[in-house]
Amino acid sequence: MRHVLLALMLLTLPASVRAGAEEGRVVVLGIDSLDPDVVELLASEGKMPNFAKLRKEGAFGRLRSSEPILSPIIWTTIATGKRPTEHGIGDFTAINEKTGERLPVTSQMRQVNALWNILTGAGKSVGVVGWWATWPAESVNGVLVSDHTCYHFLFEDGLTGGKTDDAIGIVHPPERTEEIAALVRRPTDVKHSDITSFVSVDEADFDRPFEFHDDLSHFKWAWATAESYRQIGLEVWKKDHPDLLMVYIEGVDSSSHLFGHLFRAEGLGGELAEQQKRFGQTVEQMYLYADNLLGQYLEVLGENDTLVVLSDHGFELGALHSDPSKTRDMRRVSARNHRIDGVLYLYGNQVKPGVTIQGAGLLDIAPTILALEGVAPAKDMPGRVVHEALTIADPERTVATFETAGGAEAAETQDASVDPAILARLEALGYLEAESPRSTKNLAAMSFEEGDFEKSIEAYRAQIERNPKDAGAHSSLAGALGAVERYDEALVHLDEAIRLNPLHAGAYHNKAVIHERQGDREAAIEEYKKAIRFGSGYEPSRQSLKRLTGSAAIDDALTDEQKLAGKLARDASVAARKGRYDEAMELLDRAERVAPDYSLVYQYRSNVAFLMGDKQAAMAAVEKALALEPGNPLFERNLEHLKAASAPAPASAR
Among 276, 298, 288, 272, which residue's Cα sits nearest to residue 195? Predict the structure, then answer.
């Protein structure tokens, strides 16, 4: 086990890696999903004075994230200074190989040491609060409050009947568990007055029973968890005086997933307008909460201490879902609205004020924190120290690695039973797929991006072996095979991907790429057009089509009447996305009068009818579209889904 080997590491780490830093401590505040543009906007309006102070008196820049933009992957990369293909965390969940059960990722799935392990080995003390993938809590020189803490104590009796001695692995050292539990705020502890600045609901609405799939309940959890980790972090800082404190706060991210589409959105109607009345200020207020939290940590910072504030990515706010029906439940935005740039602020001791940090990435954070702690990064850490923002020299790297003997073999897959509260929350935010988790595919994709095509091929083949019906895995395997010019094999897998999912835009795109490499320009153009048609304007194919033909349009053969009808239909789509369904139907009526034989009009009419709750009208419209364009897989799939949605529930489910 990793924590056993660390005890040996503490005795053998060379003294040379512990020299160079001035006396002082470091606080790292990880605020998930904090967007640099939104911070800049609100700070310019005078609403985030503490972040404005950091920018003026410290060093500031954007922190470049990496794909896929998923929190467990990114926060583990930040904490280890290693790529996901090395640290082994590839998604929110993994599969228990013994039972086939889906598990939340755990600390034992991580295959390399994190900052808290490295600094423990260097004789430094640490405090870690709420960081992703830290359960079960590892043995460290200090306090580790795992990411399961606010799930374990979610309700009055927790998951243990209120017995903290049963809370195995929640906190290290375990004798601190009861003390930490007393600082946890549960959703049931939240008072109406606590969140009136965030949401506009009456007392009766506020008092309804807790359920993760309920938007108000979920926000109560997000706020209560942020409050818990904020307070626990402050207490650990004051009581334990760790050399390094790392505190993770998720509230901005959860709020953005729940209500980001409402942020300063204009012209909303219907159900979206009603949502905005209740939750239109929630995200903005969570940004102000983050600023207030920052102010509290600034107050306890000593003159020799350093503060690092960062986010794993940004978030596109005010973007309405292409399918407004998704705003009726918790599948609203998922990871599609994540933006690649997060924030990075350095402030206090050893920081040059007024410096703009350029080109910082996730892998640079761990080496920078180590340097601030007086520990030289290891040679096998690919990131750099952000030395341009610091008054200390970039330390010489004399140690090859901080990894203990045994490497990946030291980390065992955790076989503990699934915490249902964690899986319920991930599902509520739209992170969990209906079938297999994406960990293997994500790591395979990262191997592809790193140019290790054979490793990527091996991983995708393993994924297909586990799930032969995974169209995405077939398409991605084809991409990896194509990268090594095994085109015939690639086309076999692409045809299988399209058979499994006739609307898989990526498969059509990959076929087009192969045709283009083989010199068949016309076949490539045709496949690029299919990708755009079935993938809602699939951008990689749009760019490729424009390169080959000079235009990204796929409707060059349309009549003038059809082009006008298409514009009216797209205007209808915009109106529907804002909840203005009557206006959308009026536009579609006009489109149908202009071009009654254009299938696209009926496709859009079906979509809007479904959003209005008229499934029969939706089916009639898509049947008309299918009559005009027989064999269209998009229409066939939509009709199949509509029939399933309209079928009466089985007697046992009534």
Answer: 288
